[in-house]
Amino acid sequence: MSDEPPKPPAELPDDLGDAITDYSSDQLRRIAHYAEALAEYQEREARLAEKSDSSDIEERSADLPDDVPSKATTTIKEINDNRYYYWQWRDGDQIKSKYKGPVNPDE
């Protein structure tokens, strides 16, 4: 290890390199951990966006409401001993649901 402080990468904005120079080693490790997690998140989002852009556009189901995305799936929820179909999809970190109808007991 060198006795000289490391130099920031040329690709790093000067103001960012200057801003973190005086941070404690603990703060720098937290920043590094955050930066690694953020990079992984952005890479995953880019892969998902690329996958959705490259996949064939699916036909919307005839019974799919306009306010429900085509990626939604149907799930069954039991409420007070009654079973119901719900459309369910992910919206960011949340799972959204919309009532579809009762489950036919003959199914």
TrEMBL record:
**Database matches in InterPro entries:** DUF6788
Residue ranges, annotated region (Disordered): 1-20, 45-74
Q: What is this protein called?
A: DUF6788 domain-containing protein
| Basic and acidic residues composition-biased segments | 45-63
Q: Name one Pfam family in it.
A: DUF6788
Residue span(s) of domain DUF6788: 42-106
Would you say which domain of life the source belongs to? Archaea
